[in-house]
Amino acid sequence: MPALEWYIEICIFLLNFWLIRCEDSGSFWHITDIHVDHNYSRFGNKENLCHEEGTPNGINKTDNGLYGNILCDTPWLLLNLTVASMYSIRKSVDFIIWTGLVRARIYTISDYYKSTFINIAFC
Length: 123
Fold this sequence. Notes:
Layout: H1 2-20, E1 28-32, H2 76-89, E2 95-99, H3 111-121
Parallel strand pairs: 1-2
GO molecular function: phosphoric diester hydrolase activity
Signal peptide: 1-22
Keywords: Glycoprotein, Hydrolase, Signal
């Protein structure tokens, strides 16, 4: 009897494999933890999340680069280029999974941020 069960399991597996076929596959992007920062400044203080406001003159204003600094959140340019690159790699995907944090790690949250992320959270 165990041989018959084994045979039936193999037949069911092969039947499923035949029914599924490879043409039923799809593609998707998974994006995670892109902390987009509207206030990123290339020459902002890295001790202040690469922001210029609230930084006294002459304090640690270094070149953080076009694409950001590891100590700071993502500038818009990097996000735009990332999405453009994704599009150039595969122009048509079935869906996008965007997980993790999107909001920048900021010390003071403006009304703009509050209204934006309240709307996103409840869409």
